[in-house]
Amino acid sequence: MESDKTHGLNHLVKFDRTSLLFCSSSPLFMAILWSKIIEGKKYEVRAAGKTRRLYTDGVFHSQYHPDRLYAGSVWDLLMLPALFYEPGQLKRILVLGAGGGAVIHLLLHYAQPEVIDAIDLNPVHLQIARRFFNVTSSVANLIEADGVEWLMNYNGPSYDMIIDDMFGEENGEPARAVDLDHRWIGLLRKKLSNNGVLVLNTLSSKNLRKAACFTNRKLSRSFKSAYLLQDPDYYNAIGAVFRRPVNARYFHKRLKEFPNKSRLAIRIRRIKYND
Questions:
Q1: How far apart, in whole angstroms, are the C-alpha atoms of residue 33 and residue 264?
Q2: Tell me, what's the pLDDT at 92?
Q3: Model-level pTM?
Q4: What sign results for the dihedral spanned by CA atoms 10, 263, 242, 100?
Q5: Which residues pair with residue 167 across a beta bridge?
C-alpha cells in the first residue's frame, strides 16, 4: 500500500492476499492500451510513450518504463536494501506480492540475482505483468498462489532476499494480509539464507517496530542489523532486517547510481534492537 502525503490522498483498492495496495499520487492523462472487467473488477493498462501503468478499478497500482526503472515510489524502497550487497551477491530473491512486477525489473538491474520467484494470488496481475510489463520467464518465475500457503509448502533452496509486500483491506482501510508475528517472521527467517535480508512493507514505523523480529527475543537474535527506509511523500515504512552485520557506507556509495533528485528523497535510519 502506498499513501501519498504531499497531495493528502489515500486512494485504496482491495487486492488479493498476495497483492500490493497503491494510491495514485496525481492524475496523469494516458491512453488506454487495454481494458477488461473480470469478476467485477475493472483492469486497465494505460500508456504514455514507453510508460505503462496498471490500474485496478481506476486506482494506480504499478508502473513500468524500460528506460527509467526507478520511479521514486514505494516499490523502489522495497528494492533498495539490495544496495547493501554487491551486484550478484543476492543470488536468489523471493517477492511475495508481485503485482505488475515493477520491483522485479529494479531487482534484476541492481541486484543481478540468478533467480527471482514472484508470488501473487491475482492471475490477472500476473498476465498483465507478462504481456505489458515485460516480466518474461527469463526475468522472473511468476507463480499464481497464496503467498502464505506457498511459503509453508516450499522446501527448495533458501533465499538471499525475501520481500513481504502482501496487503489486503479491513473495514475499508489498508491492512497487512499477514501479521508480522512470531509465526510469520519465524517462517520467513526459516526460508532466508544466513547472509540474507528480509524486507517488510508496513504502514508506519510504529507498526514496523511491532514486528516479531524486534519484539521476540528468540527471533531478534537471528538478525544482526536493521534499517528503516522511507520516502517523505509516503507513509509507508520499509524495514530491512539482515542476518549479518551491514555497513550503511557501502549502501550510500551504491545509492549514487540513482538520479540526484530521487536520491535526496530517501530517508534511511538504523534501527537498534534494544533501544
A1: 33
A2: 98
A3: 0.85
A4: positive
A5: 19, 176
Distances (CA, A) of 28 to 32, 46, 155, 243: 12, 10, 44, 41
In the three-class reduction of DSSP (H, G, I as helix; E, B as strand; rest coil), residue 217 is classed as helix
Percent of the chain with pLDDT over 90: 60
Contact (Cβ atoms closer than 8 angstroms) between residue 182 and residue 114: no
Length of the chain: 275
Q: Does residue 219 form part of some domain?
A: yes
Mean pLDDT of the chain: 84
Identify whether 11 is part of a domain. no
Q: Which residues contact 213 (CB under 8 A, 6 or more apart)?
A: 180, 185, 189, 198, 200, 219, 220, 222, 223, 226, 239, 241
Q: What is the mean pLDDT of residues 41-70?
A: 84
Query: Is 18 contained in some domain?
Result: no
The three cell numbers locating residue 182? 512470531
